[in-house]
């Protein structure tokens, strides 16, 4: 039999269109009514995944699920199956298969009644656009009918409530935009009604992040690391479903996208809540060839002879200018950017500054010495191509920078309140802390309460008033909330906060969204998704064309262009641990010791030998933290005098080197071919 889907009969006998998922709904109902052996839904993806593969390329195909789990996954975010397709098949006991039209060879996802359901977290989903309504009442405790009054108001305005959290004096509920037409008018009317019985606060936009799987309740103790991840972000509401199939956290929308890969890493890749792997998970999206972004061959492979020659004297950094230019051009192709600055704190080598200046970049500096270094290296540069972003710098640095005519950010009330005359007649920027931080390590997250940087959102109006009072004009808003960020959505969230504040100030011409663009250090990491970022830029431009957009990356432009060359000093075996010693360690490259950062390490002298020796690579400094790499593999015959190459060391390498133990600073050298 062949039939169409999507169309149904309405209660009054007329035709009805089922909307999204309409054909699937029809198929599920036909299958159930006919008592079919199974219903197969052929679609454009291989099945349901353990997370949205676009946010988490490591997401695993879910090979087998029971109906209840599939229902939770469909209801809490996944778009593959419409939630209403599942019930007819569940009730009739008809299995539901999801298959990929383009890849008929793949087994897809099988949803059926399982005799022995597998416990554990199987998927992490998220829904954006959630609105929270928090209702505070002192009279609520033990008061009969309070909840009835409150929910009557929601009913009256046609709003269906999704999650509920309650305390003695507060009830907070979430409204899901999928179920509701949550317009500002409706919300205002609702709040007006609720205000009669309690104090109301609307918190939006939020996202609901849901862990789905059987038996979460009995495994809560295993969720330590996951709760720690949430602890860093603001959690407005936690809700554990009464059917023990889901645990939902409601957070600010801006942080949800970054959370997903981290949670997936903890729960599914590292198995904080292990499930019987083979019975549940299929291959990852990446392994199925789902657009993983490919990392190009590093430049240094083809330059081995030059590098071995340069390694006659180590430790030595070598920077490859063509790679710097290539990265510079990749950002120059992005749409809608009025100004690109290079954050010279990442690497202040004069040849790199000159190369970037001729690629059209300006410079972001964090000390007066950095400003002077740019001016000395590029004497003809227009000072307006320099932005000085001091943090707790002395007054004299502000004064000198203003005299030099560079752009300046003020990042607290203190300078404006204490030294107002400095700013009279000046055009200044305000650095804002949007209230959240991001980045590869807590030490490089520069937003939120724990961070020393920026004006809290609540203080921006006062800063603008102080600036006006001092006779200064606020022409730009700036935010930089961390370093080593992989999620392109992040800058959009920053933009949202800055644009709203800029509208309130009225004189703002430009918004600087900061730096922070990540690079792939680990072998399995992917390059930054520039296409996704470009897409976000287009959206930002369209939303607020009145603001010129600036960015100020450091790492992205130079990290992969630099390597650190070291010489092997000794190979030592102690109690079963082999250590390969190098002639510099944390004194030359601090990142592994300070942040536990990963840098690839290769034996350049024996590049083609198989890496079979399990070892640690350590430096000569008198600290046990002086380890450049743990759990590494190098060629078995690695020996004294071999040249080691530490990859991706062009950013925050030489600039953070020290003379600790009175060792010499590493040399620096440029390759330009
Ligand atoms: N703008 C401001 C105001 C900054 O503070 C920074 C970096 C940047 C831009 C550039 O961020 P990037 O694009 O490089 O992520 N030593 C750490 C990184 C510290 C970053 C400090 N500020 C590391 O090695 O990972």
What does it look like?
It is built from 19 helices and 31 strands. The chain has 673 residues and is an alpha/beta fold. The chain has four domains: 111 residues, Carbamate kinase, CATH 3.40.1160.10; 152 residues, VC0802-like (2-Layer Sandwich), CATH 3.30.2130.10; 239 residues, TIM Barrel (Alpha-Beta Barrel); 112 residues, Lyase, Ornithine Decarboxylase, Chain A, domain 1 (Beta Barrel), CATH 2.40.37.10. Strands 15, 25, 26, 27, 28, 29, 30 and 31 form an eight-stranded mixed sheet that branches. The longest helix has 17 residues. The protein is globular, with a radius of gyration of 29 Å. The mean pLDDT is 90. It binds ligand LLP. The site of ligand LLP has 21 residues, from α18.
Structural category is: alpha/beta
User: Mean pLDDT across all residues, rounded?
Assistant: 90
Strand segment tally: 31
CATH homology superfamily of the largest domain: Alanine racemase
Attribute tags:
673 residues; 19 helices; 31 strands; TIM Barrel; binds ligand LLP; eight-stranded parallel barrel; globular; VC0802-like; eight-stranded mixed β-sheet; single chain; alpha/beta; Carbamate kinase
Which helices and strands, and how do they pair?
Blueprint lengths: L6 E3 L5 E3 L4 H13 L4 E5 L16 E3 L1 E2 L1 H9 L10 H7 L3 E5 L8 E3 L8 E17 L9 H11 L4 E6 L3 E6 L8 H11 L4 E16 L9 H9 L2 E6 L5 E7 H17 L7 H4 E4 L19 H7 L5 E5 H12 L6 E5 L6 H9 L3 E4 L2 H10 L8 E3 L6 H10 L2 E4 L2 H6 L8 E7 L21 E2 H13 L3 E6 L10 H17 L4 E3 L17 H14 L4 E4 L3 H4 L3 E13 L2 E6 L8 H5 L5 E3 L7 E8 L8 E9 L7 E4 L20 E5 L2
Parallel strand pairs: 3-6, 5-7, 15-31, 16-17, 16-24, 17-18, 18-19, 19-20, 20-21, 20-22, 22-23, 23-24, 26-28
Antiparallel strand pairs: 1-2, 4-14, 6-7, 8-10, 8-11, 9-10, 11-13, 12-13, 15-25, 25-26, 25-30, 27-30, 28-29
């Amino acid at each position: 039999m062949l039939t169409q889907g999507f169309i149904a009969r309405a209660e009054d006998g007329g035709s009805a269109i089922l909307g999204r998922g309409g054909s699937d709904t029809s198929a599920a109902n036909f299958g159930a009514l006919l008592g079919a052996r199974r219903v197969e839904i052929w679609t454009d993806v291989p099945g349901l995944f353990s997370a949205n593969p676009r946010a988490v390329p490591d997401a695993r195909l879910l090979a087998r699920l029971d109906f209840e789990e599939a229902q939770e996954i469909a209801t809490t975010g996944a778009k593959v199956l419409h939630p209403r397709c599942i019930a007819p098949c569940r009730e009739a006991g008809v299995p539901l298969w999801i298959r990929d039209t383009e890849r008929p060879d793949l087994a897809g996802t099988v949803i059926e009644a399982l005799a022995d359901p597998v416990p554990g977290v199987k998927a992490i989903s998220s829904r954006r656009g959630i609105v929270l309504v928090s209702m505070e009442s002192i009279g609520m405790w033990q008061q009969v009918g309070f909840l009835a009054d409150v929910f009557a108001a929601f009913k009256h305005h046609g709003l269906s409530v999704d999650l509920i959290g309650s305390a003695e004096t507060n009830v907070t509920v979430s409204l899901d935009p999928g179920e509701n037409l949550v317009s500002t008018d409706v919300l205002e009317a609702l709040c007006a009604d609720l205000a009669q019985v309690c104090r109301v606060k609307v918190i939006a936009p939020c996202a609901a992040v849901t862990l789905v799987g059987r038996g979460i309740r009995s495994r809560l103790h295993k969720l330590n690391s996951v709760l720690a991840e949430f602890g860093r972000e603001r959690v407005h509401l936690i809700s554990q479903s009464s059917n023990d199939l889901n645990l939902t956290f409601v957070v600010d929308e801006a942080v949800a996208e970054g959370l997903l890969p981290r949670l997936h890493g903890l729960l599914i890749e590292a198995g904080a809540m292990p499930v019987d792997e083979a019975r549940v998970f299929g291959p990852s999206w990446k392994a199925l060839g789902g657009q993983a972004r490919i990392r190009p061959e590093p430049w240094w492979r083809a330059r081995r002879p030059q590098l071995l020659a340069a390694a006659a004297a180590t430790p030595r950094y070598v920077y490859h200018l063509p790679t710097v230019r290539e990265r510079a051009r990749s950002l120059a192709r992005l749409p809608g950017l009025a100004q690109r600055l290079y954050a010279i704190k990442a690497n202040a080598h004069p040849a790199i500054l000159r190369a970037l200046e001729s690629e059209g970049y300006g410079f972001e500096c964090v000390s007066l010495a950095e400003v002077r270094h740019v001016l000395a290296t590029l004497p003809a540069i227009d000072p307006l191509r320099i932005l000085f972003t001091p943090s707790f710098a002395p007054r004299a640095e502000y004064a000198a920078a203003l005299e030099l005519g560079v752009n300046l950010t003020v990042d607290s009330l203190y300078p404006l309140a204490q030294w107002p005359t400095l700013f009279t007649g000046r055009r200044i920027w305000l650095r804002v802390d949007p209230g959240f931080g991001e980045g590869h390590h807590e030490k490089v997250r520069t937003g939120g309460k724990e961070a020393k940087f920026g004006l809290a959102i609540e203080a921006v109006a006062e800063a603008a008033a102080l600036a006006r009072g001092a006779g200064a004009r606020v022409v730009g808003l700036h935010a930089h909330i961390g370093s080593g960020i992989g999620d392109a959505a992040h800058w959009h969230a920053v933009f949202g906060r800055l644009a709203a504040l800029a509208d309130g100030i009225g004189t703002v011409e430009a918004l600087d969204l900061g730096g922070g663009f990540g690079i792939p250090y680990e072998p399995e990491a992917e390059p930054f998704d520039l296409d996704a970022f470009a897409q976000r830029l287009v959206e930002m431009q369209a939303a607020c064309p009145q603001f010129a957009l600036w960015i100020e990356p450091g790492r992205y432009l130079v990290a992969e262009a630099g390597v650190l060359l070291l010489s092997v000093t000794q190979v030592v075996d102690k109690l079963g641990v082999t250590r390969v010693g190098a002639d510099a360690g944390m004194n030359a490259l601090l990142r592994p010791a300070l942040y536990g950062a990963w840098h690839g390490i290769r034996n350049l002298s024996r590049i083609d030998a198989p890496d079979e020796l399990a070892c640690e690579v350590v430096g000569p400094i008198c600290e046990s933290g002086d380890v450049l790499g743990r759990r590494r593999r190098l060629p078995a015959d690695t020996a004294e005098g071999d040249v080691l190459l530490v990859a991706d060391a062009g950013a925050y390498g030489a600039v953070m080197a020290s003379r600790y133990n009175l060792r010499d600073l590493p040399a620096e050298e440029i390759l330009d071919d």
